[in-house]
Amino acid sequence: MKKFIQVTLLSLAMSPALLVSDLANASNMPQSVSPATANVYIISPADGATVKGTFTVTFGLKDMGVSPAGIEKKNTGHHHLLIDKAALPAFDMPMGGDVQHFGGGQTQTTLTLPKGQHTLQLILGDHHHIPHKPAVVSKKITITVE
Hints:
This protein is 16% helix and 34% strand. It contains one helix and nine strands; from the N terminus they run H-E-E-E-E-E-E-E-E-E. It has one helix spanning 2-24, and strands at residues 39-44, 50-51, 54-62, 65-66, 76-83, 100-101, 108-112, 116-125, 141-145. The termini are far apart.
C-alpha cells in the first residue's frame, strides 16, 4: 500500500512537468487512436441533479482503460474534467490549465462549487494529455448546487 501511495504521489507530482514538456513538443506528437466504441461518461451526479456545495463526481469509461499520464499504453488514457466550459479544447494539442487533469489515473474527484447552475464534461487524454483520435468526450451534464 505504501508503495502504491508513493507511486501515485510521484505521478501526480510529475504531471505538471510532463504537461509543460508535452506542450513544448506538441507538434511532434501523433495522436493516440481510440476504439470507435470508446465512451467516457459521468456516473454521478446525474444530469439535472441538485447537489450540495461539496460533492463527488464519479467518472465512467467503456472500451478503454485508465492509465496515468506519462504511461504510454494502447487504448488507455486519463480523465480531464471541464467545468462550465462553453467549448471543448483543441483535439490536436495537450490540454492545458483550463481543464482539471487527473494524471494519476483517478476515476473520481470531490468538487466544491458556488451555488447555482454548472456544467460538467469529461474528455479522455492520452499519455501526453492530447485527446485521442477520435476524441473520447462525454455528454455535457448540468447540475445545480444548492
